[in-house]
Give the backbone structure.
Amino acid sequence: MSCILHIESAAEGCSVAVSEEGELLFFKEDHAERNNAVTLGVFVDEAMSLIDSRGLEMTAVSVSEGPGSYTGLRIGVSMAKGICYARGAKLIAVPTLKLLCVPLLLGDELPEDALLCPMIDARRMEVYSAVYDRALSEVRGTRADIVDAATYCGYLDAHPVYFLGNGSQKCSTIINHPNAHFVPDCRPLAKWSFPIAEKALLEGKTEDVAYFEPFYLKDFIALKPKKLI
């Protein structure tokens, strides 16, 4: 059986979860900014205590890989790597934008041809986004976008598109297409990692603990934002 420790620290605050065979055993979250260094360690200690008290063998550690805050990702990934070394566990990288989509897919009945566009806020009308289908297959990879009314029209003309994440609300007044839907209050939380992490583990998609590096938002600054026409 797979017991996975999940760590999320790419966005505001942090969260930690433990799952076993698709069942959530533990979850803690804190949305206070600039508190990850302290809070994340406390949550991980509590999660590890639960795993040990139940006599479970930790199969893997999943960690949100970004894009996200440099400090938050550095703390989360460093902690995940340390646990993997100490426990001999595998490391699973969970794309933060894909993670944002999970609660929407689990909670709502979406149209068959729906696309999901998770967004992480950047300055002015810039966001970091990707596009996924309902199976969370990548339709378009992560990149920086300058958002105006036409930015996603190539997708919106053919599909209902659900925009979510902390970058989506500022776009709701700009994107007025009838196929555009804006989902409020979506956060990347560790408790939503388990479907992605368990699938990756089943498919053998794990990371090299020594060399894995997350995607910091700063890595995308050099990319010239583009418009989809």
User: Anything to note?
Assistant: The longest strand covers residues 138-146.
